[in-house]
């Protein structure tokens, strides 16, 4: 049986932030022993107790005041019990014999030979013959090098069958561990010894176990070997600092030099990823020493993300004390992340010897570490001040840890103040608690009417079992070819020459295409302005632009050949990366500034009691959909082209392909079964790949396929727009906002794309949920030498709201007022008019606000937070409440339309087609629910096969949270038309069955097919007159989040989040709650973790999850409560529902502002008060640097102009 904690360990290596993780955890929990036991106990309790008890408050019960009782979305009692005959990992019965696994194996390829010897002597002979051969156990490092760095190692040796490298042997003083022992095996063995040996003798073992917890995911630890970690020699290795501080010894062997033992000390590493072993030597085993009674050992690691991440800085400290005293006899401190190798701080250790373990020693070690561990301002990895401060912080944590342990046995240890006792503690995972509240359907609602019911996603079972087919899962066509893109490697340069000769000479390469193959008037494309070339002809303006395409017989050949295309450049200055660069060079797209002006801001400032100014910025965000961009194009007869594409906007892809090929749109049919996530990233950018693939297929008259690798996708497809805000605000003594002037800048990248519309959405939302009577907004779209940024869930709305929340909090700090009361004072009310002159109707902001404060117990918890902060110096909690008011509609009014096609077949089955794309958000199941109500038919008879441009033409993108609203109304209208035709037949035979009515209609020659169409009424806005209604309605919500921050490292943990959302009358609470939770976790990444990293020359460093960090399973709130507001209606959408996709995302900023509250509490302890700037995301580095203390004050500010990376 699986235990609950183990589920967390299993999941920690998996990333899928848009799910919110909570449903996955709870679903998998039903496989655990604890769940089985809870079901048995629940049955017993139900028999023993009377379940009819109700709250004495009746309908006034707090749980009923705003929402219904919590309800399980799925009845977990119906789940099948665990069947021990069904092994969830790998059925042992399928592994019949191990004979083949134990043979000496040699696999020879064109470039690489793979050896799997079974004898130690054979291994040494191979290494003697091939001294530069790479030894591979789990392929966790070499796999990365060959996949992403394209390195080729001619000889690879796998020694997993050699017992000498796999043995674990106890000696009197050490545990000898074979070099090919996996990290998981090492952990299990060390746990065995920790249980059976005295505590003092296994202190190094304990720290290795603790560190392995943070070392990658379980999947990696199952295959990666301890020897590989040492020999790889990464300067940020998790284990090497422990091994060096512990004084482990390495046993190596070769035919030439025999056996020898090497100390893993300051002499071991001789350079970046280089050590003292001879090329022909093999690491056989390592000796990990047992510890002594007067020896104390501790290790710490700080990373961008706590779980499953590489270190920024890590440290291990090994201290020996004189018996029964606090006098240091010997000490060893090892650091990773502070030099090209793991290093021992030997000078600092010398300072400790003979000294008492007290504050004086602590201060001297600080000074020594700063001197011994310098970092230049341009050191790789950046974060200079943060990394230097971590050396002090981690040592301080270790000092406190050892002080507490030493004080249990030694009398002369200097006593620690109570507020420092928590310093040494780290954050650890706790199984999450959650609740979901929503309004259940009336008991008299017909069973076939699915509206309002929590129905499972229509593809859920197929996705959970891996059976769901995505674009690249489709079987290969006959004679299919593969396309690989040739990408620019410069951010701004003139192309002097493109030479594909070497690539074309490769076996299997079919063709190379470039701008020369497309007519001048056909090579330009774009969603609004045609300002992007399919293949760049003369000047590249960003790294990752498409210069050409190689077509070959298979993927590997195509990708290898693409790297062989030679491009000669001539650099062009300037290279504009950041918004500040663009402002300095006045690099803006035409039409700037865009303005919204209401009233006279300068006059209002003159009359205001107080005026403040400020500046804040938000970073970009990578979409990181699980399915990267993918396209298959299949040519048919007479210029017809069938295109299977992972896109949110099939019509846009169709139009651009037709434009480039110079054929009619009706010859191109774009089909989308489902896509593996989009978040806006596949709204306009799908054409980057789809058009070259379609062009190649059309030109060669053969099927062509391409799916981007993750690093390619991240390099070329753009991100959420970084924003910079400069603001001025006037307000009265009570904090009531009277006027605001804001300058908004977004980083568009090299082309227009949708950046102007993203900017406009930010301008509409820069007041968030607050009434601002006088406002001036000036918006600029910055043209830079970065990949063109694009739509992303929220579409500029979260960035705009962010400045509003920043302003509110700056006012509260200035007036020394409670920010919650100040927010309440400024909140919109029913009937208020926005700064773009749209009147608010059915405004439930106040209702959501009051419900959130009550359900989150804010007033009680803020008192507890303040108490905790008084009692802890370097651990602080923060609590924040944030509202959201998100406008629902495409701001380009012509896009607010949708079509549908409904067929009913003679057996009564129904086929729906509509203009929306299923990308995991549950759109198809909602459309089936709409049809089930209108047709009053068994939902099992309703089916949606795909989205295709030959079924519903001229569609808008599935975006702006409008998918359910627009397509739901279109399907409703089509179904109503059919039911209108059927009504006479139903009236004549009211007791008949659905199938009888359909059969009769067919015989009466009544059409059983209908199109539906819907356009949003009374919508449209003019920037020139600042009038009209840009939005159909608003979705409201409020979140309250509590966090805890480790002020010494910048690490934090989300303790609890309570969300109240007004989603009207939810079409499907299961889907909608999932969307709320998923948006929150994705937004949490935006505001705290996810950070794009660029070089000063425009090269993207964050091309994968190794550098770019997404929230993981352990990052969700420990308590996560979601309530859908009860009794809210919305007459402007299908069945009074509301859009849900984008609105909840900004609520995750409550975690950001709670972090800021915690930082404020830390600064207060050092007598620093008032407002301070904290840009988003609130990474560990930004948090630590903002928590100013005596340690950060010891470190000089680095020169940011020299830094290794640039903030865009």
Automatic annotation (TrEMBL):
Mo-molybdopterin binds at residues 648, 679, 793, 960. The active site is at residue 1142. Its cofactor is Mo-molybdopterin; FAD; [2Fe-2S] cluster. Binds 1 Mo-molybdopterin (Mo-MPT) cofactor per subunit. It holds the Pfam family CO_deh_flav_C. PANTHER family: XANTHINE DEHYDROGENASE (PTHR45444). Keywords: 2Fe-2S, FAD, Flavoprotein, Iron, Iron-sulfur, Metal-binding, Molybdenum, Oxidoreductase, Peroxisome. Belongs to the xanthine dehydrogenase family. Its main location: other. Gene3D superfamilies: 3.30.465.10, [2Fe-2S]-binding domain, Aldehyde oxidase/xanthine dehydrogenase, a/b hammerhead, Aldehyde oxidase/xanthine dehydrogenase, molybdopterin binding domain, CO dehydrogenase flavoprotein, C-terminal domain, Uridine Diphospho-n-acetylenolpyruvylglucosamine Reductase, domain 2. It comes from the Eukaryota. Homodimer. This is Xanthine dehydrogenase. The keyword Transmembrane does not apply. NCBIfam families: xanthine_xdhB. FAD binds at residues 135-142, 215, 238, 283, 301. One of its GO terms (molecular function) is 2 iron, 2 sulfur cluster binding. One of its GO terms (cellular component) is peroxisome. The keyword Iron-sulfur applies. [2Fe-2S] cluster binds at residues 16, 18. It is found in: Peroxisome. Residues 107-293 form the FAD-binding PCMH-type domain.
